[in-house]
Amino acid sequence: MNRKDLYKQEPPPFGKALLKHYALDPEYINLNNGSYGATPRPVLEAAQELTLLIESNPDSFNRLLYKPKLIDVRTKLATLIGAKPDEVVLVANASMGVNTILRNFDWEAEDVIFVFSTTYINVSGTVQSISDCPPFPSICEVPLNFPMTHSDIIESFKDHLKANPASPNKKRVAVIDSIGSNPGVLLPWREMVQICREEKVWSVVDAAHSIGQEVDLNMGEAKPDFFVSNCHKWLSSKRACALLYVPERNQHIIKTALPTSDTYIRPKDRLKPNFVQQFESNGTIDLAPYLTVADALEFRNWLGGEHKINTYCHDLAIKGGRRLAEVLGTRVLDPDGDLTVNMVNVELPIPGSIKWSADIDATMMQKMLIERKAYSAHFNHNGAWWTRCSAQVWNSVEDFENIGKIWREVCADIVKELKE
Amino acid sequence: MESLNRKDLYKQEPPPFGKALLKHYALDPEYLNLNNGSYGTTPRPVLEAANELTLLVESNPDRFNRLLYQPMLIDVRTKVATLIGAKADEVVLVANASMGVNTILRNFDWEAGDVIFAFTTTYGSVSRTVQNLSDCSPFPSVCEIPLNFPMTHAEVLESFKEHLKLHPAGANKKRVAVIDSIVSNPGVLLPWQEMVKICREENVWSLVDAAHSIGQEVDLNMEESKPDFFVSNCHKWLSSKRACALLYVPERNQHIIKTSLPTSHTYIRPADRVKPNFVEQFEWNGTIDFTPYLTVADAIEFRQWLGGEHKINAYCHDLALKGGRRLAEVLGTRVIDPDGDLTVNMVNVELPIPGSIKWTAAIDASMKQKMLVERKAYSAHFYHNGAWWTRCSAQVWNNVEDFENIGIKWREVCAEIVMELKE
User: Fold this and answer.
1) Over the range B145-166, which residues count as b (16 or more CB within 10 Å of their CB) and which as e?
2) Which residues in chain B have Cβ-Cβ distances shorter than 8 Å to A35?
3) Model-level pTM?
């Protein structure tokens, strides 16, 4: 059924009944939306139509038709995050967005970049690579070991800012996850941004997981210096697309897009930043992922909108996490739920004395993904093994129970194999 | 016409080059497309392969992104490396040529006194990339070499050598030359292999922006040409899905590329770095849609079905020459490269607009409106060296008639524009 007709119908209830509107293998227990997202069939349909439109006349599309569509998507996203449209551009993915920001700063020796031990691996790699190049700004890595509370995090952040004050005329930049990946936990990012403001630290919020999962985002209120979020993770859009938010007051920092656009203006010719323009065309790309963000929003509206979707997913994350911990005989990382949005982290029944290795990592993926067709992200953190489950609109508590049985089996296998 | 799946399609003889091939592309049959050079064109079988791959990815994104994709990526990299006479581990894939060029240029440790050589014909985003680097501390210099066509290869080489002489390397400073293999505006072949050789002799790093090369220039051989870096778009002339470029960095230079852009979790800090991990750093740079990269293999398969690189390009090259001459006749003007030494599959013909009429955004928009929207026809247009030109791309679905027909339209459109400007 095409989506026009589909949207005339009542949407199915959340849970298994929605699975058919995704292109997921119905036999795959997918509790890992958080890694790569999942594209609803109507969005795939829209992308396919758009692809054929582009292919029918690539010149007409790229030179004339695409810009209004891009503006439409940027405007819709800006509305969703409480920003002005001209403060929002689209980039390839969150890693690209973070690189664009960090590589535009004019670094100086004695600048300090704050990251966390839980910072996403591509991002910490980025910060390291910047620190390894002249003039070698410093890195301060703030350790975060969960379980910990939001006040613990804020305390630790403040302590580390104090321990690394700004040198005269030098800057400090903090890369703050809104929602961490491993573990999948909500950080008190708004308070941390506020602290940054008070301490005159630039705040770069890596909010890869936020849009479509955190409701009521409001850049006007939160006032981060920079904010990047993936649209394909939780906002149901086609892989891959991220929004890059840079408030007007900071657009002068972003001197160039990556890659540089032919609209780049040299400092002597620069009257004011041309932020939006520089991100309109950065080499040929497939425009379907960016432009079908609008179709993703339409699908989510059909399902009932952001609040309805996320109420279901959040409740399920909490309920499902508890159930999973029961089945595994372990614990939820965040029993009070303060750090849980739509992802929940539950300990796996593997002794903490067994350290992470590439072998164990590969074995887990083999046993879960290939042999048992089920997956929730796995990781080793703070001396324990965990699984991070993403509660999505097609999931139900039964999925958590079922994956619990599967993980129990797999963990027992692994422990046994290691003993041999 | 019922569409065959490609397995069955490839059992048949391919149609002859020309109009009969159009149905194997998703182009509007009414659109007179002589501008493959800008965005490329995806054959239907490649779109079909991309759709299949999309559904495979969507059925289990974790299984695909964590386990299945890597062997497929290695397969594509190996095939592309073979096509350009390089080792597989010297070739990685990036989003597009602009990204490839930025990756290389932004990895150099620039110093005051370094010189970057570019040309007035360097692609817009690339020359701006160079400008941006020059605008950031420690402010390396830029030397922009003017190229005004028509000019011969000998003249291009002469000018290049002169400018290298005028800007010798400072003590312990480096010089980097960004050299187009085939320029965009005008669409002309440069003597890039000779320029790379001159670079080698002069201790200048050669970065070849070969955006247009793969699938258009046959018998590319990195082992022979030995550029320091080489970037080429697979979606322009190699028939692959938008967008994908190859980034070639010979083993001897991989230490220069310290990080991919964006940086990968496989980035290794200098203290820990035993040797470059070039290929590994480009395997995962954030989530992307892998289908453009991975269906390069399907694009190559399609092109094999058509007869292979030599057969395809013999047709396209001949057509560029014949079509260009015919177009110049219809327009009453001239071909920029009458001897054909600078013509591969793109030909540049002067438009009948007085050179005294300079480029403006208004004229630019008017041309696009009149050609693309009102007449459903297009070949790239640009202003160069005091004249207006159109660049026509000769592709496997084109024939000489297309050049005649677009000539009639351009004549009309140019007359309209000249008249409107007089009013």
Assistant:
1) bebebbbebeebbebbeebbee
2) 61-62, 65, 287
3) 0.97
